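User: Sequence in, structure out. Go.
Assistant: Echoing your sequence, followed by the structure tokens.
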Amino acid sequence: MNYRHHYHAGNFADVLKHALVLQLVAAMQRKPKGFLYLDTHAGRGGYDLSVAQQGDTLARKPEWPEGIGRLRRAGELPAVLQDYVTAVQEHDLRQGNGGAEPRFYPGSPALVGARLREQDRMALCERQREECAILRTAMARTPRCVVHEMDGYTAMRAMLPPPECRALVLIDPPFESEREFADITQAVEAGLRRLPDAVIAIWYPLTKRARVEGFAAALRKLALPPTLVAELEVADEASDLKMRGCGLVVINPPWQLEATIKPGLTALAELLAQGPGARSSCLWLEPER
């Protein structure tokens, strides 16, 4: 695998994904009963932004200044975004950064791990041996957290349903494989068969290569439960950006999620724009019944 997320940590895609994942966790925790958080492609758990501009052979332009950097410099933010910024800052401080500029950025495991209650637990999957070793070290002090060196898609069949009968699943692959969307669809089908009420969040990129329309059509064939799709585009299709936007599919979205995240999505389109045509949307792939 060539993808290394630390080059991209804290960019606009992370902002959208992590802000919404935190809202999903908060919604799950409105009920006292515990739940399983399953991360199928967990990565290394956290990232040092000071090395984000160091490529394999040449210096790279870091992406975080156009993502979390812009939000940190912004004024008053919608509650959804302020909660996210606060969580990132708290992680940065816990890792020992007292400077004005952010240095330590939390991946999904670190963000969610900091929010777990005593009755909640997490299972983190990472199949890349080196990344998994780093992840184990990063999450070693997080209670009720187990790290697995395994294919996260397999985990959908192996770990659902959990004893709690409640689960929040994040599917966030690197999208290097041409089969990625097909693999996601198969994993979702397996997960819903085992736990029909599972809340499943799927991150995807908006690029020239990504076949998002076909992915949506494939999901519809699964006889989906209610499914919400949030998208952020930082530039239009004429942009030269490799990735001009991204989205998060949420299957079985918690009650009132749409109303909760819309103000944040609207603000992100304005705050994170990198070209003409920046926009956000929140639409139902499968409406509530």
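User: And one key feature?
Assistant: The chain has one domain: 5-286.
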